[in-house]
Amino acid sequence: MPSWRPWAARCAASMAALLMGAVPVAVAHAADPPAHVEAVKIRVDLTDGGFNGEPGDFVLEVEQGHVVEMTFVWAHVGYVEEEHIMLLEGYKLETEKLNFQNREGTIKFIADKPGTFVFKCDLDCDVHDYLQRGYLKVKRAGSAPPPTQEGQGTGSPTGAAPSGATASGSGTAPSSGQAVPVAGPTLLPTKLSVSPSSWVTGGEPITLMAVLTDAKGKPVPKAEVRFSLDTDFAGTKGQVALGVAKTDGNGVAFLDYQPTLGARRHAIAASFEGQGLYDESQQVIQVEEVGVPPSAYTMPPIGLAGFRHWAPRALVLTIVVVWATFGFILYQALGVRWARARR
Amino acid sequence: MDGKQNHQKWQLSRRRLLALMATAGAAAVAAPLAPSLLTKVRGASAATGGQRQTPLRQWAMVFDLRKCEGCVTTDKAPQCVEGCNAEHFVPQGQEWIRVFEVEGAAGHNYFLPRPCMQCENPPCVNVCPVGATYRTDEGIILINHDRCIGCRMCMAACPYGVRSFNWDQPPNPAGATFANYSPEYPVPHRRGTVEKCMLCAHRVGDGRLPACAEACPMYAVYLGDLGEDIATNGKEVVKLSDFLAANSAFRLKEDLGTRPRVWYIPGHGQDEGHDITVRSRPKKARSWQEQGATLEHKDEGVKK
Known about the structure:
The complex is a heterodimer. Chain A is of the alpha+beta class. Chain A contains three helices and 17 strands. Chain A folds into two domains: about 25-185, Cupredoxins -  blue copper proteins (Immunoglobulin-like, Sandwich); about 190-290, Immunoglobulins (Immunoglobulin-like). Chain A has helices spanning about 5-30, 125-130, 305-340; strands at about 40-45, 50, 60-65, 65-75, 85-90, 95, 105-110, 115-120, 135-140, 190-195, 200, 205-215, 225-235, 235-245, 250-255, 265-270, 280-290. The longest helix of chain A has about 40 residues, at about 305-340. The model of chain A is unreliable at about 15-30 and about 145-185 (pLDDT under 50). Chain B starts with a helix and ends in a 13-residue tail after the last helix. Chain B has two domains: about 1-50; about 60-290, Alpha-Beta Plaits, CATH 3.30.70. In chain B, strand 9 and strand 10 form a beta hairpin.
């Protein structure tokens, strides 16, 4: 009769083996992935025009087994009262409420379940369904092993995709394009054009028009365009702020400018600082003054100066009136005299 | 019959009289305007002909009191005063720009540099019996010491007390005897005449900052041109009207109607770390002799 001890020992060993093997699985399903695991970082900007400014389906792809860190950045320019709680369905994860004050929310998880999962704003409406909806495709693990341990993966220190991560997330990905992992904020390129690009003025005012578009030529609305003037005054070179104009729905901003500088040539720079979402852009235009610009300051006549201003006119008028009256009387008198003489 | 016709010929109707009066009135109004119209036409032709006229400057100054701490944090005398002394060889006992320690309404102290206010309606000019003190087209009040008779009427009239009188012959730097005197740069100084700050007319005309602005280590002194609506402290350039409006600038004794061209931006040197609870008077500025200023090196002044 076999003793129960060896059986118990085998059972204990098996249980121990099972438990040890189960540890990575438990970690893999944990809500908070281990800190030492390098994550595939994905940034999604929530803009007025949808995710990363792209309305419609927005697809990101990652490979099964990767640790994914999705950062949603509230980046509205126009709709500043918008609030979002971003949900990742299937993984039952959500960010905290994102708004003007709290702009960033991150969810970090292990993409252990293959499939396509919707991530969207928790607000149900047609606009949000269209603008704030995307898909996370978790592809089945391929041949390359996912880097789950520090040192084993070959991810770059900047947070670029670890090797084997054929799928990735992106801050700039088009709706169906390949995603590229990013470590920091991705700024969308913009183009600023100002008209007239140069002009010759005789000191008369002009309206400057700036058109701001993104890389695809779409207008950037409600963006602040700053106009400044290059100057050299009393041996000091610098830029004088002329004013700030906001772009309208067509990405167009206007600024009225009255030249006052006596310099024959000067440059006006229009610049857009990006507002944290876009890349900076600038354009410089040249102005040539051929006339004398009007003075920005007119000193009103004071005291004696005021008197000196109108007194000569009044004096001349008085003299003319007196002499005209005298001439008229003389004319009449002579007329009478001559009429009598002719009789 | 002939007489009657002749009488009708000479008779002046009311309509004719009115027409004559209107013509005479128009001529009277147009006559004084003719010179200015001619000037405008000449200006236009010059502009189109490529000979562009440079507009006249309208000089102004701004003191940013947020930056002015009387140079107490640097443990030096006010550098604006020393710069002025060295530039103009200001006689000892005079200070063409003076830095006052002022007690504010909250019991705090702050510093107030006071040069000549270059008033638009200057009482000193109005009272001068010989026309020795005058206002230039660019807004600087100058004194022609060849004319000044030393009556000191202007000193009595100036509400800011910026003028000084040379009771005795003030010392002049070596070589001053042969210097070309001009109201813009009144060297050598003369006995029995009145002197004051003249906004460094000789410097600003050459496109340089006044000596006080150049010497200020805190960049608290701005030179401005109201015509171009621009000002600089040697470090930055600002749009003058916006700068004044955005910072609640004020002028001294505005209620007198003198229209000073010196503005102040309220503050107590906070930008330069001045502690308002510490009473610290500005140090006495060194004279030009103590600084070793000479005519050859007058442009060097006090450097930051």
